[in-house]
Amino acid sequence: MNVEFSTKAEKLQPHQTGALLYVCASEGPDTADGGNPTAALLYAALEQAQTFAAAQSADNGSLKAVAVVRLQDVQRETIEQAAKEAAAWAQKQENVNVCLAPFCETDSPRVAEIFAAAFGEAVYRFDRYKKEAKPAKLQTAVFYHAEHSQAVQTALDVAAAQLYGCNIAKDLGNAAPNECTPEFLAETAKAEAEKLGAQAKILDKDYIKDNMGAFWSVAKGSKQKPYLVELSHFGAADKNEAPIVLVGKGITFDTGGISLKPGLNMDEMKFDMCGAAAVIGTFCAAVKLKLPINLIAIVPTCENMPSGAANKPGDVVTSMKGLTIEVLNTDAEGRLILCDALTYAEQFKPKAVIDAATLTGACIMALGHDVSGLMGNDQALVDSLLAASRETNDKAWQLPLFDTYKEQLKSNFADIPNIGTPGAGTITAATFLAYFTEDYPWAHLDIAGTAWKSGKEKGATGRPVPLLLNYLRNVR
């Protein structure tokens, strides 16, 4: 469900149709000149640690929902926490009017964008397999600011595009693996891109088998056919300007192959295509915003299954780049499909290449479930991604890629093995990919811990769409 966001360049009136939400700073809502006395009373009743309060007030013979939010400061995490609390209330309303009057030209769009994103997150549902759906009520949110409505609207457009991309990523990630096959993922990417006016190309098994030996070595173990998806958006004034290339790992189900995973929680291996989902979602969000950049998304997609045709530990395969790889563990398959996709990206002479992948469990051990791992061969690119991470609170942390880690990737029988010796598993996985990215600036996001949640809130998160979209918006 998508919420429609809009602005009005006027003061929010107490009798406006729909629920009323007053976002306040150090002072409460203005009660002069037709202000809302209920909101003022709610604000005055807030205890020191409280940031949100709501009530029903009488309005022309009916009850109207009124709520206030108090921001202790305008740091992003403060706003996000308050917005999340307000969104839990807002999703139960059909229409919400949001007053941003206390905020300046700089802060009002930031507050609007964060609240809109929180509203969109709160109303998201994935219930297409359920007999009885329980959608949120919220349909529209109108943001009021008498002076800065244009800046607020620009921020709302960004929030709407980000939510659009996140929802694509979450829908793909949450889809059952018997529905979200490699073909489904490829066709969905193509349809979503073309719907927005972008270009799409799908390369099939024959191309992969003939040109991408590492990718094919994983794909051949499954009855499902593999695909390589290429999406293109030429938004720069110069259509020949070097593009940004996004690459996403698209393993639609990962059993581990012959190096079979334990059965416990294996259902969550449907999320092993969340890197691909995030790249597709980010691409669509960027196109929706008509960003003035040239952008290409590359998605290698297949399953990793055990069969008589599957990779075996000890197999040696030849990558698209020509490097031979000894497959020591078939559960380290993501890097095998990514390395050929990263080589495929060379033809575009890219300004930068960024890959996103649920690549290593070691990243969860190192950084947990709140922070993505970030590595790369170009510090300026890494710094730009870290800046985007801070701006969106889509957290990432840089890990090193020293040359000494190459000592952990030695094979007696091939140029490199697909796993390193024990220790620094996230870094050695990225070091493996670095062999295939020597000809352009490259960064790698390991999202194994952040792409989905387990337990009661099980589901795809849509990360790192916010980080990547913010980076693309600031490309110069």
From TrEMBL:
Cofactor binding, per record: Binds 2 manganese ions per subunit.
Keywords per UniProt: Aminopeptidase, Cytoplasm, Hydrolase, Manganese, Metal-binding, Protease
Binding site for Mn(2+) 1: D254, D331, E333
Cofactors required: Mn(2+)
EC nos: 3.4.11.1, 3.4.11.10
Residues engaged in binding Mn(2+) 2: K249, D254, D272, E333
Keyword Metal-binding: yes
Name the UniProt record assigns to this protein: Probable cytosol aminopeptidase
Provenance organism: Uruburuella testudinis
